[in-house]
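Form 7-S
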Amino acid sequence: MKKVLMTLVAVMAVSVSMVAAPKAEKNAEPTKYTINFNSHSIARYLSMSNDQVADMDRVHDNFSREMKKAEYADEANREELTKKAVMRDISYMRTILNEAQFRKYNAVLNATLTNRGLKF
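Output:
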């Protein structure tokens, strides 16, 4: 009987800890280096073609990885890595978008970076 009770307590403890863990992750605040774009909203706003959207998604994935590296870099290199990531994103997007689309994208990117507390 004692073994059954201890097993039941162990199962309940594991169950409770598994349920509580995802809530902690959901409540975590994104850092200022986490830049999330809704590609469908951006595509609609910029009137992008399907090929442009696919290219933008690849560029944004690369940009997100570079910003994550900047987040975990030491403070001496953080600003330089962030600037390189932003400049690389801008240069790639310039090749994907036409001039009017690029101006709108640049405005959205600048607003996003400013809202995150990153200035260039």
